């Protein structure tokens, strides 16, 4: 393969670089960091990649020189040397020196990364299958607590609304409740999990920390600029691992204070909630939303489930049977199946979703389940 | 080459390697206590045993440490909350705080609390003298309890640590006898 | 293989010299060549099964949205793709090479324990069936990832039990195979063939076999603990009973990191045979190659937790694992430099085995460099569990192990079958594989850098273009392997007759002392090594 071979090599090389040029407009590096630690990591990655690239070019420069000049077809006769102590010692020691040069900045960055002391705000992030729960433990907003789950409409995911998906810049990276934090403050995130291991990962803030059930781990970030930063669960956690995003909203201090105020009002409002009297239609409408977020992935929008994997609700014996059994099932879950306990939902949410399932599709019980009944069943 | 002799050598080699493989299988299990030991020595997970002795009883008035308290109930219908969310203390001071727990389910349940610390390397410096996590906690349906934790922060705590989170997670102890669930978990 | 033109000196005592025929020749075979052949064909079948799973994954990821499979089935595909490729395809392929080549390269008549050899092969098909049967259990396959992290695995459906049983079976098979290889190499070398005169392929397998005997039992322990946690009320990995889920990760990676080298080191061995042969020049730095391989093996036991930087370790531990991991770059670098120095001032030709070896060298080094980037803890924390890691280990596993397996097959096919493969088609296979491999995996670096997590069935729109390119590449790569199957079958059925030594520079015993094709019984009288 003389001339023909060279042509092939050249063609492959051209293709390789063309592919760079053509896609250069797309993101080829880490996300733009928005914390000073993130910038350090970004630079560290760039430096190490550059060093590797230079060595790569050097080593394969030699190899390709040999490939072109020391080939049999150009009449090169093989030398018979097979060792050279000086060279071998050199190429053992030089990489050691390069590695030490890399380790120095890496060590500094790592120590900064792990220093979670003197945080202004402590927030606990709890991983659930498949959503995040946030509890503000210390600092302004302490006491706020909420769940955060994917808000991308199911229709965009399963392909019935492709146009909506294509028009949605935050497809799969949007949640109903954002984790709101103030700008310029050191935020310490404690991670834990309720079921299996999850990982809390926001690339632009340079944080990733596993959330291990039964234990807490900590990490931190300090956002430099207000904005919305998006990430995802990074540790395989079962079926909907790909569908539990993290959205961090960084606010100016004043806006943050206002947000804390509104949250605290909401907490106060939620307390009187159980006494509100709901009509069947109100419950059903509310329940439809709850269903779309919690149930649709398995039981499907049609209520038909997935044969062999997830049972149908439409026509189901439980849904059309006594109310108490269905309430119990939702509160306790069903051992050994994918049906988890949903007792973390509010009384109103559970009442709504049960009412919705009992009066939708082919189910026509005409019965409403009141939040008070859920409250009673819990005790 | 004497084939009988070589066959014997082969068998001896096989025996040795098999013993080695079995030993490595055992080694896998040995990693469990080994890991626990490491966690105990480094204090990463010094869990449900009281601290042996507090060596440094000197109170370091020059330093403040913030302690945060956190709680989780793992798949339990229990309300479990610290009475105080955080306290500021001097290392060496004896501190007592309390947790409230209430069993909201219709059944009696025995729970075991597992503590965890953030940051992890602060763990060996939190010397628990008394803790509800030292034993299983049986709760009748609807029963509530206030449970104390008593501890000292060792004054040898590294200077870079000034906030420690103490987090407890309650797990159900399945099959534990309800009336007098004794012993340590 | 059928053409047994037995040369006179191979039938010095013609006791059981005639091959049994029919299916029982294979079922009851104790012949290292037959068993090697079975290993290789088994591994190719598993390669196709795992490949189809990969293509299901890439089809789903062709576009955003859930089109083809459901998320739990997707998870099951990523899990079994990993398990089947690692335990079913790559490892058996190299055991196949070991069976065929080690006795011939050290001048031994067969493996040390021929009947155990038969058993270690025949454990594989049932294990493979268990892995496939797991897909049809209630609830589908266990979508827990090939790493089978607790507590996801302790909560998975009944498919997990089949998977655990399959891993046990595969482990026993590997351990028996390794015991056989170690004993053969240490006890059965021809007189005069000292360890430091052995072909490097034998050295790499000797080291690999020791690694296997040391770590496969540890994996067996880890999955046994998973099993007892699932069914017998133990709490190894359950915080509720005083266990710790992270303990599983420590035990798994204590096995898992050496496992990476179990896959890579025999690949180094194959390449170390092929490159000198086509450079017509002895291997540069033979002794340093041996020492480098041994250092890599030893270091591999000391770096396991670099897979767990985000699981929450003390900062001191993170620093130690970062330094130790980066250190592996030194012996690995020595090997790459030695291969390049072997080519330097050689008289190079570029037949298919050489092309695959050069592809190996180029792409494995690239994978090594991304490994170095990942060893740096702060950077790894950003890239851990993203597609960057997926790209990294496919450069090491596919471009590393698989390309070198292809190099080895093209290199020894004439010796095994007595016939030549079609050189033009072989070159086509190489170039198609090379191009499509890079189309598939190079872009995944960018996906990972931009923050796309692994093991997700659907992704945000900003990842769409690269995923589409990657999927196209994957189909190209998959189809190219059918060309490989065609080349091998064509070689066996209608290849031209191969000379005894088709490669001018080949110098190990199977080329210099045996006819082509290698007779069914070889070296019943050991050769004399000067």
Q: How would you summarize this macromolecular structure in one to three sentences?
A:
Chain A is of the alpha+beta class and 379 residues long. Chain A is built from twelve helices and ten strands.
Q: What keywords describe this structure?
A:
heterotrimer, A: 379 residues, alpha+beta, Immunoglobulin-like, 3 domains, 12 helices, 16% strand, elongated, B: 185 residues, four-stranded antiparallel beta sheet, 36% strand
Describe the structure.
The complex is a heterotrimer of chains A (379), B (185) and C (530). With 379 residues, chain A is α+β, with helices and mostly antiparallel strands. Chain A has three domains: 3-113, Helix Hairpins (Orthogonal Bundle); 121-272, Immunoglobulin-like; 276-378, Cytochrome Bc1 Complex, Chain D, domain 2 (Orthogonal Bundle). In chain A, 44% of the residues lie in helices and 16% in strands. Chain A is elongated and about 90 Å long. Chain B folds into two domains: 1-42; 65-172, Sandwich (Ctag/Cox11 (Pfam 04442)). Chain B starts with a helix and ends in a 13-residue tail after the last strand. In chain C, 68% of the residues are buried. In chain C, helix 9 crosses helix 15 (387-417) and helix 10 (286-299) packs antiparallel against helix 12. Chain C has a single domain (32-512), classed as Up-down Bundle (Cytochrome C Oxidase, Chain A), CATH 1.20.210.10. Chain C has helices at residues 23-27, 32-60, 71-106, 114-122, 124-133, 152-155, 159-187, 200-231, 245-279, 286-299, 315-327, 329-343, 352-375, 377-383, 387-417, 423-450, 464-494, 509-512, and strands at 419-420, 496-497. The longest helix of chain C is centred in the first third of the chain and has 36 residues, at 71-106. Chain C is mainly α. Chain C is built from 18 helices and two strands. A two-stranded antiparallel sheet of chain C has the order 1-2. The two termini of chain C are 30 Å apart. Chains in contact: A-B, A-C, B-C. At the A-B interface, strand 1, strand 2 and strand 5 of A face strand 1, strand 5 and strand 9 of B.
What secondary-structure arrangement, pairings included, does this model have?
The complex is a heterotrimer of chains A (379), B (185) and C (530).
Chain A: H1 3-22, H2 36-69, H3 85-113, E1 121-128, E2 131-138, E3 145-148, H4 154-158, H5 162-166, E4 179-182, E5 187-193, E6 198-202, E7 207-211, E8 217-221, E9 227-233, E10 245-251, H6 253-272, H7 280-294, H8 296-299, H9 317-320, H10 323-332, H11 347-358, H12 371-378
Parallel strand pairs in A: 1-5, 4-10
Antiparallel strand pairs in A: 1-2, 2-3, 5-8, 6-7, 6-9, 9-10
Helix pairs in contact in A: 2-3, 7-11, 11-12
Chain B: H1 3-42, E1 65-73, E2 78-82, E3 86-89, E4 94-103, E5 109-118, E6 126-131, E7 137-139, E8 144-153, E9 163-172
Parallel strand pairs in B: 1-9
Antiparallel strand pairs in B: 1-3, 2-4, 4-8, 5-7, 5-9, 6-8
Chain C: H1 23-27, H2 32-60, H3 71-106, H4 114-122, H5 124-133, H6 152-155, H7 159-187, H8 200-231, H9 245-279, H10 286-299, H11 315-327, H12 329-343, H13 352-375, H14 377-383, H15 387-417, E1 419-420, H16 423-450, H17 464-494, E2 496-497, H18 509-512
Antiparallel strand pairs in C: 1-2
């Amino acid at each position: 393969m003389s001339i023909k071979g060279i042509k092939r090599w050249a063609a492959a090389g051209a293709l390789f670089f063309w592919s760079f040029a053509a896609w250069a407009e797309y993101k080829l590096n880490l996300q733009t960091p928005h914390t000073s630690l993130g910038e350090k990591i970004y630079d560290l990655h760039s430096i190490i990649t550059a060093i590797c690239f230079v060595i790569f070019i050097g080593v394969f420069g030699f190899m390709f020189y040999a490939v072109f000049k020391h080939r049999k077809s150009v009449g090169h006769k093989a030398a018979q040397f097979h060792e050279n102590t000086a060279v071998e010692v050199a190429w053992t020691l030089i990489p050691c020196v390069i590695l030490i040069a890399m380790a120095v900045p890496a060590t500094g960055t790592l120590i900064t990364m792990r220093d979670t002391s003197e945080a202004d705000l402590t927030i606990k992030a709890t991983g659930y299958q498949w959503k995040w729960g946030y509890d503000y433990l210390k600092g302004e907003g302490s006491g706020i607590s909420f769940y955060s789950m994917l808000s991308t409409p199911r229709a965009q995911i399963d392909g019935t609304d492709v146009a909506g998906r294509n028009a949605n810049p935050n497809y799969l990276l949007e949640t109903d409740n954002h984790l709101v934090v103030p700008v310029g403050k050191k935020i310490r995130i404690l991670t834990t999990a309720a079921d299996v291991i999850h990982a809390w990962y926001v690339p632009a803030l340079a944080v990733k920390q596993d959330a291990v059930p039964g234990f807490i781990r900590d990490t931190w970030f300090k956002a430099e600029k207000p904005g919305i930063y998006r990430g995802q669960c990074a540790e395989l956690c079962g079926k909907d691992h790909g569908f539990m995003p993290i959205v961090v909203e960084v606010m100016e201090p004043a806006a943050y204070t206002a947000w804390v105020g509104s949250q605290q009002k909401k907490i106060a409002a939620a307390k009187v909630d159980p006494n509100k009297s709901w009509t069947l239609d109100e419950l059903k409408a509310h329940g439809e939303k709850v269903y779309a977020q919690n149930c649709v992935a398995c039981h499907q929008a049609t209520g038909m489930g997935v044969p062999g994997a997830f049972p149908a609700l439409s026509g189901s014996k439980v849904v059309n049977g006594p109310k108490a059994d269905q309430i119990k099932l939702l509160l306790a879950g069903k051992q050994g199946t994918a049906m988890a306990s949903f007792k973390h939902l509010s009384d109103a949410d559970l009442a709504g979703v049960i009412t919705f399932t009992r009066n939708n599709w082919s189910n026509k019980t005409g019965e409403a389940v009141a939040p008070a009944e859920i409250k009673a069943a819990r005790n | 080459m004497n084939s009988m002799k070589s066959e014997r050598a082969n068998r001896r080699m096989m025996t040795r390697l098999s013993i080695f493989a079995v030993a490595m299988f055992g080694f896998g299990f040995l990693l469990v206590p080994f890991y626990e030991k490491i966690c105990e020595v480094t204090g990463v997970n010094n869990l449900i045993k009281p601290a042996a002795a507090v060596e440094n009883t000197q109170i370091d008035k020059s330093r403040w440490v913030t302690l945060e308290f956190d709680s989780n109930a793992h798949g339990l219908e229990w309300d479990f909350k610290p009475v105080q969310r955080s306290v500021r203390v001097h290392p060496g001071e004896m501190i007592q705080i309390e947790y409230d727990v209430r069993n909201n389910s219709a059944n009696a349940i025995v729970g075991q609390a597992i503590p965890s610390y953030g940051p992890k390397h602060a763990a060996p410096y939190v010397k628990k003298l008394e803790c509800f996590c030292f034993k299983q906690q049986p709760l009748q349906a609807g029963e509530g309890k206030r449970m104390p934790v008593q501890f000292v922060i060792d004054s040898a705590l590294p200077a870079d640590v000034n906030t420690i989170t103490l987090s407890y997670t309650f797990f159900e102890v399945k099959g534990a006898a309800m009336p007098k669930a004794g012993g340590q978990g | 293989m059928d053409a047994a033109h037995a040369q006179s000196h191979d039938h010095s005592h013609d006791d059981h010299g005639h091959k049994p025929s029919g299916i029982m020749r294979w079922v009851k075979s104790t012949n290292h060549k037959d068993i090697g052949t079975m290993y290789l064909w088994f591994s190719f079948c598993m390669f196709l099964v795992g490949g189809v799973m990969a293509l299901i994954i890439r089809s789903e990821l062709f576009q955003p949205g859930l089109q083809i499979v459901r998320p739990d089935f997707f998870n099951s595909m990523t899990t079994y793709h990993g398990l089947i490729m690692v335990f079913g395809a790559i490892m058996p392929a190299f055991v196949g090479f070991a069976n065929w080549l080690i006795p011939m390269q050290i001048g031994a008549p067969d493996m040390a324990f021929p009947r155990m050899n038969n058993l270690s092969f025949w454990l594989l098909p049932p294990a493979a069936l268990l892995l496939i049967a797991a897909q049809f259990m209630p609830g589908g396959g266990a979508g827990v990832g090939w790493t089978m992290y607790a507590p996801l695995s302790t909560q998975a459906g009944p498919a997990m039990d089949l998977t655990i049983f399959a891993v046990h079976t595969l482990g026993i098979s590997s351990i028996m195979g390794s015991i056989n290889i170690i004993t053969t190499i240490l006890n059965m070398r021809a007189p005069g063939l000292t360890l430091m005169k052995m072909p490097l392929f034998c050295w790499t397998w000797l080291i690999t076999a020791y690694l296997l005997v040391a770590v496969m039992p540890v994996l067996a322990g880890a999955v046994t603990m998973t099993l007892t946690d699932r069914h017998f009320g133990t709490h190894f990995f359950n915080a509720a009973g005083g266990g710790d889920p992270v303990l599983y990760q420590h035990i798994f990676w204590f096995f898992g990191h050496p496992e990476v080298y179990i896959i890579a080191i025999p690949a180094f061995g194959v390449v170390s045979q092929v490159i000198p042969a086509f450079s017509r020049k002895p291997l540069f730095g033979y002794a340093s190659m041996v020492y480098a391989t041994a250092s890599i093996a030893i270091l591999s036991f000391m770096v396991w937790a670099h897979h767990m930087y985000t699981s929450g370790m003390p900062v001191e531990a993170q620093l130690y694992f970062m330094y130790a991991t980066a250190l592996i770059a030194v012996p690995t670098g020595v090997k790459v430099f030695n291969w390049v120095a072997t080519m330097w001032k050689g008289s190079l030709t570029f037949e298919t085995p050489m092309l695959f070896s050069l592809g190996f060298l180029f792409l494995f080094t690239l994978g090594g460099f991304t490994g170095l980037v990942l060893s740096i803890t702060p950077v790894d924390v950003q890239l851990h569990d993203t597609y960057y890691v997926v790209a990294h280990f496919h450069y090491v596993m596919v471009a590393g192990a698989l390309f070198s397996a292809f190099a080895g097959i093209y290199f020894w096919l004439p010796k095994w079958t007595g016939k030549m493969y079609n050189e033009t088609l072989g070159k086509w296979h190489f170039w198609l594989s090379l191009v499509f491999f890079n189309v598939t995996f190079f872009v995944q670096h960018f996906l990972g850098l931009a923050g796309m997590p692994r093991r997700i069935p659907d992704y945000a729109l900003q990842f769409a273009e690269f995923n589409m390119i990657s999927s196209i590449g994957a189909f190209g790569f998959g189809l190219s392997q059918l060309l490989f199957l065609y080349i091998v079958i064509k070689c066996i059925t209608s290849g031209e007759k191969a000379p005894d030594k088709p490669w001018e520079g080949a110098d190990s015993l199977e080329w210099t002392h045996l006819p082509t094709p290698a007779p069914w019984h070889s070296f019943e009288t050991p050769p004399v090594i000067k």
